[in-house]
Amino acid sequence: MATSRYAFSPKILGRQAVSSSKVSYKIYFAVDQGILSHTTRVVQEATRLDHVAGEVYGTSSLWWVIAAASGIGWGLQVPEGTLLRIPSDVSKVFQFVR
User: Fold this and answer.
1) Could you tell me whether strands 47-48 and 77-78 are parallel, antiparallel, or unpaired per DSSP bridges?
2) Is residue 5, in this structure, part of any structural domain at all?
3) pLDDT 10s digit of each residue in the chain, 98 long?
């Protein structure tokens, strides 16, 4: 999984800060093993994950869920051709965060 300057910064879930070092691997593994259902999307042009999250989940703050599931690190901008794995039910993702 790619790392970025945000790789070890905590993410906010509700009112709780969540460390990304273990959470991202758990989400990636759950998607990879079929534990979390997901859809895929190939990025057609450079785009931002917060825009995709806003479109899919109704809030841009869940961009990190798509990043973790896709194994692309914590960068918001992704290049054309990147395969995004987008968990279908974000509430099930939160089971892996705790």
Assistant:
1) antiparallel
2) no
3) 444 444 444 555 555 555 556 788 899 999 999 999 999 999 988 889 999 999 999 999 999 999 999 998 777 888 999 999 999 999 999 887 76
Give the chain's domain count: 1
Domain that holds residue 69: 11-96
3-state secondary structure of 52: helix
Q: Does 70 fall in a domain?
A: yes
The pLDDT score that the predictor gives to residue 46 is 83
Give the Cα separation of 5 and 57 in Å (integer).
25
Domain membership flag for residue 76: yes
Structure token digits, residue 30: 């759950």
Candidates 97, 45, 46; CA nearest to 69 is 97
Secondary element (H or E) of residue 87: strand 83-87
Residue 3 lies in a domain: no
